[in-house]
Amino acid sequence: MTLIVISLTCLAWAYLLIAHGGFWRAAERDDAVPAANQTQWPRIVAVMPARDEADVIAASAGSLITQQYRGEFSVIVVDDHSDDATRTTAERVAAVHSNRRLTVLSAPILAEGWSGKLWALEHGIRYAESQPEPPDYLLLTDADIVHAVDSVESLIIRTRRDGLVLNSLMAKLRCVSVAERFSIPAFVFLFQMLYPFAWVNDSKRRTAAAAGGCVLVERRALRAAGGLAAIHRALIDDCALARLMKPHGPIRLALTERVRSIRAYPAFDDIRRMVVRCAFTQLNCSVALLAGTIVGMLFVFTAPLIVALFDDGLARGLALLAWACMAITFQPTLRLYRLSPAWGLALPLIAAWYAWLTLDSAIQHLRGRGGQWKGRVQAGIISAATPAAATAPARGHATVRAAESAPMSDRSSHPDA
User: Fold this and answer.
1) Which of 78, 207, 263, 367 has the fewest CB atoms below 10 angstroms from its CB?
2) pTM of the entire structure?
3) Where are the domains of the chain?
């Protein structure tokens, strides 16, 4: 029986090496700036939702407001009911760069059925579209993301050249602490395995994914697809947005070192909270998919380690072969994060850790605590994959003020939804 199992594991790794979109090569990259062959530069507005991000938003907003973009570019920060100094910190950035266009808004009370991030993004997009000259493109980005000074221009050059309706970069995540070194490269590896970037970028395939830290989307195409209201329940909003947009034109997803996340995960429990928040949602909250995923991860990743340590003969030889395959396929991602190749040998243990976190995510959902993040529980919002047509509920609008005009007064506190 052991020999049969490990033989099937080897066949699985042969498929992953040869026929699964070459995901492990990490070849879809966006590090080089493409040559600019255009004379007209479209209007772009960056929309950044921020909830309790006082420790990172200055660096993130500052990296946007100082972009070297030859066209019209502005930034909207949407404070999503923060309990810290997120808003005042963003205003301080606006004051320092008073000659640039940075607007700080307060998100309305969370509308029923919407995920918090999407509701904040929707408010920022509505504000951008209400201006005399609405943007041609929207850059949806997170408050922990720092952009190289030419990243916006590089994004738009490639987007216009390839006729993309969505262009997303997977930010290089922070990888400093032991917990980050153990978990982050494998997270990126498994994401590529789940959504091979070459398949995402192939208009003939249905595979669609994006990385929410950096998504450039054509505004008119987004509206034609139904806008964010079409995916308003999505907790995994980036992939839902990619699935929404792919029928409307080419999309692209790539790795990069030009866009970085500065969010720190110093302890394993920080990683756990990040993964548990949405792992079960990724499986559409299906117990059957949960069981299949955990069995599959243990079968593909962990079985070779167990058989290699506790069996002998041909079974051990095949187990070592499968273990070598996973260590080799992990190397390009490890090189991206400048980590020792020896981390490849730990992949069976790391995969077992992620299998446990996926199970923990399901347990939290069943306890009514799914989707918990920064004090907000969104257990009822389970749609991760299928865009649902919906109309944004009419709600009160928060006061909006342009940062470069008059000083902003402190807003009154909003109850959390």
Assistant:
1) 367
2) 0.87
3) 29-177+195-265+390-402
What distances in angstroms separate CA 92 from CA 62, 82, 145, 204, one per listed residue? 10, 16, 18, 46
pLDDT at 407 over 90: no
**Identity of residue 80:** D
pLDDT of 99 higher than 80 = no
Query: Does the domain spanning 29-177+195-265+390-402 belong to CATH 1.20.58.340?
Result: no
- The secondary structure of the chain, three-state, reads CHHHHHHHHHHHHHHHHHHCCCHHHCCCECCCCCCCCCCCCCCEEEEEEECCCCCCHHHHHHHHHCCCCCCCEEEEEEECCCCCCHHHHHHHHHHHCCCCCEEEEECCCCCCCCCHHHHHHHHHHHHHHCCCCCCCEEEEECCCEEECCCHHHHHHHHHHHHCCCEEEEEEECCCCCHHHHHHHHHHHHHHHHHCCHHHHCCCCCCCCCCCCCEEEEEHHHHHHCCCHHHHCCCCCHHHHHHHHHHHHCCEEEEEEEEEEECCCCCCHHHHHHHHHCCHHHHCCCCHHHHHHHHHHHHHHHHHHHHHHHHCCHHHHHHHHHHHHHHHHHCHHHHHHCCCCHHHHHHHHHHHHHHHHHHHHHHHHHHCCCCCCECCECCCCCCCCCCCCCCCCCCCCCCCEEECCCCCCCCCCCCCCC
The residue assigned the tokens 């090496």 is 17
Run of H or E including 253: strand 251-261
Q: How confident is the model at residue 285 (pLDDT cuts 50, 70, 90)?
A: confident
Residue 295 CB contacts under 8 Å (≥ 6 apart), including other chains? none
Phi, psi at residue 92, to the nearest 5°? -65, -40
- The stretch 166-191 carries a mean pLDDT of 97
